Amino acid sequence: MLKQTLSAEWLKLRRLRIWIVLLALPVASVLIGSANYAMNQGVLQKEWYSLWTQVGLFYSEFFFPVLIAICCAALCRLEHMNKNWNMIMTAPVSVASIYYAKMVICAVLLLLVQFFFFLLYIAAGHLLGLPAQFSSEVIGWMVRGWIASLSIAALQFSLSLVIRSFALPIGIGLCAAFAGLGMYVAKLGMFFPHSLLSIGMGVLGQGGLSPHQQFIWVLMNLLYFIILSIYSIRRMSQRDVIA
Amino acid sequence: MSEVISTSKLSKRYGSTYSVQDMNLTVREGDIYGFLGPNGAGKSTTLKMILGLAKPTEGKVKVFGKDFAEERRQILDQTGSLIESPSYYGHLTGLENMRVVQRLRRVPDNNVTEALKIVRLDKHKDKKAGQYSLGMKQRLGIAMALVSWPKLLVLDEPTNGLDPAGIGEIRELIKSLPERFGMTVLLSSHLLAEIEQIATSVGIIHQGKLLFQGSMEELQRRSYPMIMIKTADNSRAQRFLAAEGYSPQLFEDRIAFAGLGDEEAAAVNRRLVAANIDVLRIEEHKKNLEHIFLELTGKERSL
């Protein structure tokens, strides 16, 4: 059944201009981060890692959460417009498969974004004259960033599926990104999706995570993802469809 | 004939007011059931509850004899619908929109081609649905509802936005569906004339309540004929006939008799002629459905 909803969902991406946002925001993060790095090379002496702290900071604390919010809002807006909920909710598919189709599409898009961001980071490093060899840690940060992005996506979907406004959930997401920074500073980062992203992408802390912390980190992401997904699906199936 | 849809005591309450109350709707196989009522009477809400888009406050819905709450997917698999106004993705072409439904419903390519042809959108299928006219969007909506050749078709105000030629065309299409494809159709309208021309069964809803349900003939049987006579001097004729024991009423430029049989009509004519009052016209007027509808809803209000 997921195959049905997924292939239908895939078709809807045609001609959507969401690509522009998905490409522009990583570029903006890398540009700003690299400029920051270039101007502060006096204090930023750890080469690839220093570049990462700059580029990744803008990306994971601001641009990426906004990008996730826009991506989720855009996928929901398709249905909010022109009474499409009426059509999709009378299709012979389960509500869960409708939800997960959107989630899978979102996850694939975010994975591509993450990969694109990775390429941009490498390109920026080379342009800035860093040595050819970068730390392989980056790959781990990218993968973890993607995993944490799914928790944030689950949060954004829970908002955008209900709120018909395109901008409001994005605004809330932006506030949550700042709240996540606060939670991180208050050492409560493990308990908030947006700070899980900060931790996962390793942009604020120098040291890596201990195996124990890693376990908690994965668990918290899983928990957020599952609870928010169940919440969204229940809400979709129990509430009246407002098309 | 078996019951395709049956609702029992179906009610929907928003806040403290009932939008639909104690609705016992029965649609039989092969029916074209016309669901008639003024705007805001609760038609769409009822249709939405039948399709599971709205959850009943009280009561139950059975479709194909199955409980909706338990067998949602099996029911929806055999049901096509168009609710409120057509659904479409504006950035996709008509054909791509159909493909979305095709994938959700797993139907062969043939169905898509056929459905587009049947609503005469095949020449516009590569145009973006967002650029369609209202009538074309409505046709697309009907094509989407038809694409799986469902056993049950639920159409909410299907002729909305269509031009007169389009209305006629869609009406003929809907009329042909039970015979051609063995479909059962439930359609709503606020236009009496439309229901009268399409439906075989009628349900009249007003302020959330079902006031009448039965076959079209049953509804029409409620209309009784009036004999209207136009004479050269109506007021004299009326006085004369009243004195003769009839109860004629002046009605515009005619005198009207309720429940006058053939022989009585002939007798009235003979008497008028004998009394030297020229008879210009004798006509039979059936009380039209509009009157019946107004009687049922109890108000002279616009539909």
TrEMBL record, chain A:
UniProt keyword Transmembrane present: yes
Keywords associated with the record: Membrane, Transmembrane, Transmembrane helix
Transmembrane feature ranges: 16-37, 57-78, 99-123, 143-163, 170-194, 214-233
Listed name of the protein: ABC transporter permease
Organism the protein comes from: Paenibacillus agri
UniProtKB/TrEMBL annotation, chain B:
Domain of life (superkingdom): Bacteria
GO molecular function ontology, one term from the record: ATP binding
InterPro entries in UniProt: AAA+_ATPase, ABC_transporter-like_ATP-bd, ABC_transporter-like_CS, P-loop_NTPase
The keyword Ubl conjugation appears for this protein: no
Keyword field: ATP-binding, Nucleotide-binding, Transport
Presence of the UniProt keyword DNA repair in the record: no
SMART domains attached to this UniProt entry: AAA
Pfam families: ABC_tran
Domain ABC transporter: 5-232
Family of the protein in this entry: Belongs to the ABC transporter superfamily.
Protein name: ABC transporter ATP-binding protein
Taxonomic source organism: Paenibacillus agri
